[in-house]
Amino acid sequence: QKAEWAKLIDEKSVSKDGHHVELAANIGTPADLEGVRNNGGEGIGLYRTEFLYMGRNELPTEEEQFTSYKEVLEGMEGKPVVVRTLDIGGDKELPYLNLPHEMNPFLGFRAIRLCLEETDLFKVQLRALLRASVYGNLKIMFPMISNLTEFRSAKAILLEVKEELLEEGVSVADHIEVGIMVEIPSTAVLADQFAKEVDFFSIGTNDLIQYTMAADRMNERVSYLYQPYNPAILRMIKMVIDASHKEGKWTGMCGEMAGDEIAIPILLGLGLDEFSMSATSILPARSQLLGISKEEMKTLAEEVLTMSTNEEVIAAVKKAVNL
Ligand code: PEP
Ligand code: MG
């Protein structure tokens, strides 16, 4: 099987009936680029920048960040690179920020919430990103957006930083897409409104599932409730994709679910545009895509959306695509 997959490295990701989707990779550092190339990644769907900030005693400088972002953008040679701004908090701590202990870190002061308050820290990252933007195809993504005001505030800071750079005579790419992660149910529910203002969505199912099912993604005791194929999750995903398409925007997914063989047929049927996963999942996903038809998966998706449980959906997909 591995030899069969290897042949697909330079192939396009198309379904049996000819529909193209983008199979992209999730990365944490520039060193991960080699794996992306060796596995035929068509882009970076999620660059988790937190790793630049972790395992050290102080914030990374603008120069350090610029170097990493530039390396990733150049390494991808014009292919799309979605960089997520700092998503610290939850399970990822930065001891040197000396943040107070929280009862529920996953529901607390994390990601964009922290960046909108610690704007100095946020602006350094945005400056580094905008300076790097001329070296490739950069898209900027804000994590943990729960309401439109957060998105508007984050985007306003981005535009402010861009103006500052232009005044300093620094060049910045002309058009940079700015999108959000959909990983909080309130944002999925208002996707039609967000779709008018963002350039793209990327669904973060790792968090979207935990917040929708109220089941901590780190807690073994409740892992049975962590149900990716629960129709409640699937309907939310459909809402987001449909809302984006209605406004001529695109939707990706960068949670674990995007590389999962049960989920892929459903997501293809729902019209997902970009699937971002760990690099080693890309070739198996491409191989699966080549064997399934989007039109048939549309019918499957409609069927599973009427079901009630995770188990029913798994059984229906296995039957439909011979897994
Ligand atoms: C997600 O929540 O699905 C996601 C991709 O972000 P992270 O796993 O980094 O929280
Ligand atoms: Mg997340």
Automatic annotation (TrEMBL):
The answer, when asked if tRNA processing is one of the entry's keywords, is no
Q: Does the keyword Transferase apply?
A: yes
Any signal peptide, and if so, which residues? none
Q: What is its EC number?
A: 2.7.3.9
Where is this protein primarily located?
cytoplasm
Q: Which reaction does it catalyse?
A: L-histidyl-[protein] + phosphoenolpyruvate = N(pros)-phospho-L-histidyl-[protein] + pyruvate
Q: Where does the chain bind phosphoenolpyruvate?
A: 48, 84, 206-207, 217
Name used for this protein in its record:
Phosphoenolpyruvate-protein phosphotransferase
Q: What is the lineage of its organism?
A: Bacteria, Bacillati, Bacillota, Bacilli, Bacillales
List the range of the whole protein covered here: 250 to 572 of 572
